[in-house]
């Protein structure tokens, strides 16, 4: 029996038992007051009368009434450009030491998102909460002294105008506490390697020296890393190399589309725990094994608002109409998709993070990510969300016993008629026409708006199959390989033409 593992497990269980149950609504009220009070003397706080909001009887209502919605472009042009240029006390006290570079979904131009010391502390605290939640899982004592493979972006941060820049996973990994260094893999030297392929090659070469108990990272990149390790070491599965692997902490995108292909790399099932860490903050994590939903971190530097996900509220670029109604945690309902807004200790205010969510348990503040506002396909009234797309593809996987871990699509014109052209990442040799017909039928059954569109402006569905590797190659082509990069599910007409040119080469 591992003495160290027993001690760690005992401390986690004790800490969890001593932690009081959170009243999520009260926690959010306290967070909003704290944010407003901290930022009331900033330029943003003065312009939007934070002092007046703080003295209001209903702070949440006054906050929503006084401050407009911001997407990245609006917040950057009006406020964050000054932060990037080094001005202090603009949207948050002082000036941030870090900027998180985020292209999100393979965009060519990186966003620069301020990361304050307050945000770094917030991320650390949320990470500790997630570790404490492991007490809810039936994990053996031996697990708690095994190593953790954290596959993010490079920790070799770039300096620009006195600030350090990198992806949030790289910033977080560069700030790991000293006591965690012995558990952290691939280790500082490999983690600094900027080239993703080289970094994975180094991991594969040293894999047998690691005793990995847990993995952490975006599913598509974790899967490619595992395949590389297995192939290099001439193994049948990853458990031949890391027999003590028991947990995978997934993040960034829904794990479900990758489940079938991921499980093929294992000798036996492992525990999968979902997390929601974005460039803007640590938003939610899976707290218990009875569900794959995640609990919002309501008491730790992020204030949440929710806008019903309706076509009339969404602009073509994924931003919100300023007249769209917002609600707080006390007003949300089940079975309703919402656009997620956050205000944070890094100076983001009523910020459209770009994700859509749905509550699965209101009392516990548990959610699922359902898609992206930009990935909402409504060119001809089809009103297709990523959630509906994923559901249809999962049904196809089950029906034909195939794997489709990747996809992208666009609304295209063929002979003056609109079609949805899907590219499916699969090794299946099924006829593309059969896949197109099946996909069309499933979407019509699941979505009444899509069915109406198919009877009018949307003339049909076209499917082209490619290997899943094409998608990672595309990311490499875009110079956005590994790290926090997520595949663009719905493409613009111009982006889709570039994609098709790449695929045809």
Describe this structure in words.
- The chain has 505 residues and is an alpha/beta fold.
- It has two domains: 1-373, Rossmann fold (3-Layer(aba) Sandwich), CATH 3.40.50.12780; 377-504, GMP Synthetase, Chain A, domain 3, CATH 3.30.300.
- It is built from 17 helices and 18 strands.
- It has helices spanning 3-18, 24-39, 43-47, 50-54, 59-66, 72-84, 117-132, 168-174, 188-191, 196-206, 219-232, 259-263, 386-400, 432-446, 448-454, 469-477, 493-504; strands at 98-102, 111-115, 147-150, 158-160, 163-166, 184-185, 212-217, 247-251, 271-278, 281-285, 294-296, 302-308, 337-344, 351-361, 366-372, 406-414, 417-425, 458-466.
- The strands form three sheets. It has an eleven-stranded mixed β-sheet, with helices on both faces. Strands 2-1-5-4 form a four-stranded mixed β-sheet.
- Helix 10 (196-206) packs across helix 11, helix 13 crosses helix 14 and helix 14 crosses helix 15.
- It is globular and about 65 Å long.
Which features characterize this protein?
505 residues, alpha/beta, Rossmann fold, GMP Synthetase, Chain A, domain 3, 2 domains, 17 helices, 18 strands, globular, disordered N terminus
Strand content: 15-25%
Content-based structural category: alpha/beta
Largest sheet: 11 strands, mixed
Fourth CATH level, the homologous superfamily of the largest domain: ANL, N-terminal domain
CATH topology of the largest domain: Rossmann fold
Shape type: globular
Low-confidence region ranges:
3-15
Average pLDDT value? 85
Number of helices: 17
């Amino acid at each position: 029996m591992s003495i160290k593992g027993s001690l760690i497990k005992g401390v986690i269980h004790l800490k969890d038992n001593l932690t009081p149950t959170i009243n999520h609504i009260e926690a959010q009220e306290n967070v909003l007051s704290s944010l407003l009070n901290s930022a009331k003397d900033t330029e943003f706080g003065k312009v939007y009368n934070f002092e007046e909001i703080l003295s209001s009887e209903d702070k949440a209502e006054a906050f929503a009434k006084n401050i407009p919605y911001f997407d990245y472009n609006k917040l950057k042009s009006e406020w964050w450009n000054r932060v990037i240029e080094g001005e202090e006390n603009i949207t948050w006290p002082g000036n941030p030491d870090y900027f998180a570079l985020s292209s999100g979904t393979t965009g060519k131009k990186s966003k620069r998102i301020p990361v304050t010391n307050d945000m770094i502390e917030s991320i650390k605290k949320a990470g500790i909460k997630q570790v404490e939640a492991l007490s809810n899982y039936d994990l053996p004592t031996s697990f708690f002294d095994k190593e953790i493979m954290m596959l993010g972006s490079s920790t070799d941060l770039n300096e620009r105008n006195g600030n350090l820049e990198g992806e949030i996973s790289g910033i977080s990994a560069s700030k790991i506490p000293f006591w965690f260094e012995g558990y952290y893999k691939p280790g500082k030297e490999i983690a600094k390697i900027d080239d993703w392929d080289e970094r994975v090659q180094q991991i594969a070469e040293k894999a047998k020296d690691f005793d990995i108990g847990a993995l952490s990272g975006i599913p598509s990149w974790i899967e490619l890393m595992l395949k590389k390790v297995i192939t290099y070491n001439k193994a049948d599965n990853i458990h031949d190399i890391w027999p003590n692997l028991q947990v995978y902490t997934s993040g960034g995108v829904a794990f479900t589309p990758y489940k079938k292909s991921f499980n093929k790399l294992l000798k036996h099932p492992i525990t999968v725990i979902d997390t929601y860490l974005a460039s803007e903050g640590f938003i939610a994590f899976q707290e218990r094994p009875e569900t794959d939903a995640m609990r919002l971190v309501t008491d730790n530097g992020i204030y949440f608002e929710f806008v019903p996900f309706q076509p009339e509220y969404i602009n073509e670029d994924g931003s919100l109409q300023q007249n769209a109604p917002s609600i707080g945690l006390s007003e949300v309902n089940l079975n309703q998709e919402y656009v997620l807004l956050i205000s944070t200790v890094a100076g983001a205010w009523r910020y459209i993070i770009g994700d859509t969510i749905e509550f699965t348990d209101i009392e516990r503040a548990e959610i699922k990510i359902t898609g992206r506002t930009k990935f909402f396909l409504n060119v001809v009234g089809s009103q297709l969300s990523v959630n509906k797309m994923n559901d249809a593809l999962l049904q196809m996987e089950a029906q034909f016993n195939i794997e489709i871990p990747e996809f992208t699509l666009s609304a295209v014109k063929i002979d003056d008629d609109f079609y949805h052209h899907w590219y499916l990442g699969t090794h299946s040799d099924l006829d593309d026409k059969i896949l197109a017909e099946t996909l069309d039928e499933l979407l019509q059954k699941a979505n009444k708006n899509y069915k109406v569109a198919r009877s009018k402006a949307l003339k049909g569905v076209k499917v082209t199959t490619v290997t899943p590797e094409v998608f990672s190659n595309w990311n490499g082509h875009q110079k956005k390989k590994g790290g926090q990069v997520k595949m663009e599910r719905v493409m613009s007409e111009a982006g889709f033409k570039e994609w098709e040119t790449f695929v045809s080469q």
